[in-house]
Amino acid sequence: MVVTTSSSSGPASATELRAAVGLTATDTAALRRFLQGLPAVDPVGVEARSAQLATRSIKKDTKRTLIDLAISMVDLTTLEGADTPGKVRALCRKAIQPDREVEGTPSTAAVCVYPDMVATAVEAVSGTGVKVASVATAFPAGRSSLAVKLADTEMAVEAGADEIDMVIDRGAVLAGDYATVFDQVVAVKEACGDRRLKVILETGELATYDHVRQASWLALLAGADFIKTSTGKISPAATLPVTHVMLQAVRDLRDLTGAQRAVKPAGGIRTTKDAIAYLVAVHEVAGPEWLDPHWFRFGASGVVNDLLLQRRTQTTGHYSGPRYVTVD
After folding, report:
1. What is the pTM of this model?
2. Does residue 217 lie within any of the structural domains?
3. Is 149 among the catalytic positions?
4. Of 198, 264, 274, 306, which is the active-site residue?
5. pLDDT, tens digit, for every residue of 198-208?
6. What residue numbers bound the domain in which 144 lies?
7. What's the maximum distance between 2 C-alpha atoms anywhere in the chain?
8. Distance of CA 236 to the CA centre of its chain
9. Does residue 264 have an active-site annotation?
10. Which one from 131, 149, 189, 228 is the annotated catalytic residue?
11. What's the N-to-C CA distance of the chain in angstroms?
């Protein structure tokens, strides 16, 4: 496997994306026809392909490279009612320097917190290159008015968040009310300004791969910079087959329009083996251009410690137990 990095592809606006597939912002009937006309997902095929890719053999040198890449792709996250400024600052220290005892360990891509903790995180990571992401839009259920969702987003943006993670109305998708979801993503994207927007599909509630494909395209056409599997608050969260479907969506979007967009599986990714299986899928399904923290992230704080332990093993030749790394 060859790992490459990529900068921005010169992103097209959401309006340009829709025009490229023959849609306008106001033609909701055409949007419905487009989404319902997407090819059906073969569940047996996508699950078999995902299982096959997860067994791919990785050479030792490549494994070390992939471990470092996976660490650099993590959004280190705390989203609990008991979060405190001290806990957020500790999380930021770990994001900046995940393993203080091993030279060269990469920083994580970002920290992700609630809007009221954004200012604390921004101060803690200032000048380090670690991004600050914030959940918004009545996370995790998304059951609120658009006015509340926009106020939530604006609070995070004004506090200095680099990225916003919004949740869609899954009930609206399942009911075929694509216009409501579309309009809300458009409005939140506008409220983000130049911040990147991650749209959480909560795929565990969408029930079928066809709904995941439709929701992926719906979010992308409305202006999502990322499509994200899950909030991490329900089960199932991220799975390889679901991520496979989402990777197909961003690949097909680029093939059709030239615009590259990002994917973030979140929840349920706990081991180095898991993370590497996802990176293999990224390479094989979307392409090597996505093997970059700008285009692929993990919402998987729990996987970091195992990645660090495996990195130590790869570096020193000796296994280190869990007591050698900090506990989140």
Report:
1. 0.93
2. yes
3. no
4. 264
5. 999 999 999 99
6. 14-317
7. 61
8. 16
9. yes
10. 228
11. 31
